## 1
Amino acid sequence: MAKAKMDKCEFLGSFQTLPGKEGEVIYTVASTSERHDTRCWGWYPKKEDAFAAVKMNAGDMHECSYTHVVIEEVPSGIIPMSKAIQWFRYKPNKVYSEGRWVRCKPPKFAECTINFSLG
């Protein structure tokens, strides 16, 4: 049995990771805010499905508390280094719970932070 090559990830310091297969990724959807923990709502094998879930606010990702949603591209493996591909902020409507998610830049509180969904 061949041993898997263990690579050291600079970002994680002394942690060792075991990368998955090249090109294997999922797209996770997580909501977060400056005052609340992060909640991962789920994942999709296709990026467009993750965007569709945010657009329709599947499962009420706002929950009257979360201010932002992030879609991350997450490669397979142990301690994967995700990449945020799109941020959204909640834009309330006249009836607050009937607002919608609009694209935005990453919020200040999320700077230098990755792996909102896994990790």
Note: The radius of gyration is 16 Å.
## 2
Amino acid sequence: MIPDPKIFYKTYLKDYHGTKATYLKKILDDLPKYEKEIFKKELDEEEKDQFRLTLKSDLRQTYFHAIETFFELFFALNPHGKQKFDDLNVLYNLANSAGPKTYNKISQIALNENSLEFLDERIKFSGYEISIGHYLFYMGIFKAASQSQELQDEIDKSIEAIKYGVKILATDFINRGEYNAYKHGLRIIPAVKAFMLGDMNTNEIKIKWDLSDSMSFYLKSKSPNEIKIITKLSDIDGDYSMTMFCSRLIYHLIFYRRLTLKFEKDAEKYKQFPITFFGKEPIAKCNKVNVAIQDLEYTMTMTGSKLKNKGSG
């Protein structure tokens, strides 16, 4: 039990997703080395494929979980529309978070162009007039910002970039099919090896994409006799970069609040600390697609005990 909610900010694993993404990426970048170190034997080709796909799938899941975690914290701490500031009620708010309600809020951010404009609204806190975005992502950096227009300008630009990035995160998250396929029954398999387009008259292959590095996940369709299969190529660099971006947002929500609580050991440890800023261009670079083809969608119909392919997209 944590009797004092202030301890939450000191002990929270603020780098959880960044740390996990880092070691997964490191292993993926040097698979032969870690195959030997972890398994203590020579893996056959099937075992190597299973190991590689497990790591890639775990990195993908880590990205989704990072987004989910960020929004839970973001909504728990957000003072917009509330009668009081909820920093010390964070544990209560997180424990009482309602999944469907949270998902609806995330959907609104993804689909409504002006959904994050409230971050520019001005509030009064600790004797300073600041924006809600400043309160959320740069807690405690009030006096320094009030004394330096240059610092305040950097914070304001950073919040604009955060709005841009948070919208990307929300958009990636609202299509829950893939994340649920990982969480519920691990409904993912490396089912498709290639996708080809050919000339119907000559049967000549005109275009071919290698999909051997893809995973397919299974979803229910509108018809009870159908299932939908979506195939995605692994984008290790994209998943890693966006997870690291999301992890930094979580870090900002937690770390600066920790400093304002003035824990005894922190006074010496954090006499000086860096203030980090976000930019639209670096976020756009993180969000860059690094694969030649993205989603392929199939629908299959159950007839008796057989599945028939209805088509592809």
Note: The first helix runs from residue 6 to 11.
## 3
Amino acid sequence: MDIVKNFFLGIWLFSFGTIAYLYLALYRRLPPSTAVSPRVFAAYTTYNVFWWVGLVACFALAFVIVKSWPLKPYWWVALAVTELFPVGLLSLFLVLMFKVKEAAK
């Protein structure tokens, strides 16, 4: 069960960390009504070595938290509910990318 908790908490930390990172790096300085290319997202995430280091750091931090601090079940429910926000953003992004790709044909 600890492996599932480590994975879940690591994904939660990483997803909210990625949202904060993209906001601070991209959207904070953009003027209103500006589009961002998917290549920019790739450059800030999968092509960036610090993003991958952040992934490892989030899972390491999750491991330390789960081992040193036993969380009550209601914390896991709260994490599951709040994880719906990044999952919703990811699914919205993927649907929009599919529509753009379909429209380009």
Note: The radius of gyration is 16 Å.
